[in-house]
Design brief:
63% of the residues lie in helices and 7% in strands. The chain is mainly alpha-helical and 87 residues long. The chain has a domain at 38-87. Strand 1 (11-13) and strand 2 (16-18) form a beta hairpin. Helix 1 (25-57) runs antiparallel to helix 2 (62-83). This is AtpZ/AtpI family protein. InterPro entries: ATPase_put.
Amino acid sequence: MRANGLPKPSLYLRGVPYLAKFDSPWRAIGFAGLVGIDFAICIVAGVLIGRYVDRLLSTNPWCMLIGLLLGLATGVYSVYRLIRPYL
């Protein structure tokens, strides 16, 4: 196991580590849950930070919308980083 919890790649495909499929369904379910929770946390954090800035600057709802969009973008990037070793 590596420090990030993923198994060591057993072979390389076109110079990129190729990881085997999950060895048990529970690991796959756990990984799917991790992806969903990670995406949701990014969105919620963006909205909450945007609402906080809106209250400070009295700019309802603009900063919340910007925070939502930044949270979505961060969530997509974070999920991509999680699943990249399996692509």
